[in-house]
Amino acid sequence: QVQLVESGGGVVQPGGSLRLSCDASGFIFSNFGMHWVRQAPGKGLEWVAFIRFDGYNIHYADSVKGRFIISRDNSKDTLFLQMNSLRPEDTAVYYCAKDSQQAMDYWGQGTLLTVSS
Amino acid sequence: AIRMTQSPSSFSASTGDRVTITCRASQGINSHLAWYQQEPGKAPKPLIYGASNLQSGVPSRFSGSGSGSEYTLTITSVQSEDFATYYCQQYYTYPMYTFGQGTKLEIK
Question: In Å, how far is B46's CA from the nearest CA of chain A?
Fold first, then answer.
């Protein structure tokens, strides 16, 4: 069965950096685009970034453009999100999700990032 | 950017009620719309894609409809496990998706 497992969350000071990982299994990872979606405490869902199956055709939300970098290692079935210049408003649960071109059909359980001094 | 607006933001219903949630896009999205259900502390679960197609395993009491810029999610007879928050999401601007703000369905 499809499994997505995020890791790497934690507490970071404003201006700091952190890298999230998402380990995928149960499907041919290199055939599918992947997304990062976040949810601030008590708030709704916000799409963050997308990367195509081959690592090209990358897109970011305006709120993270220039600060976050999405990447993938298809040899290890792993998705990454490098987050730099972190701000308190980046505090959220970060989910990775598999793309189906019509929705995000599988989601991980999420990893919590807290940006605070 | 396409804005998605859900209504209501929250409401109460009783088990067995028929419930409808509306999602309006700031422009036509040609049925490129998905719905998700999220229980507290859990990841969103996909319910519907293409405005009206149920994801595998989703109970038939859920249905979606709409066209252009206005869409609805209907639950014909709400069950206890359906009390959750529901989100619509457009993929007209694939792969840059946007979500509605969510609709919280609570027990009356």
Answer: 6
What's the pLDDT tens digit per position in B24-75?
A: 999 999 999 999 999 999 999 999 999 999 999 999 999 999 999 999 999 9
CB contact set of A106 (below 8 Å; sequence gap of 6+): A2, A4, A27, A97, A98
Residue pLDDT, tens place only, B3-12? 999 999 999 9
In the prediction, which pLDDT does B79 show?
95
Of A46, A59, A110, the CB nearest to B43: A110
Cβ <8 Å between A102 and B98: no
DSSP B55: P
How far A109 CA sits from the closest chain B CA (Å)?
6
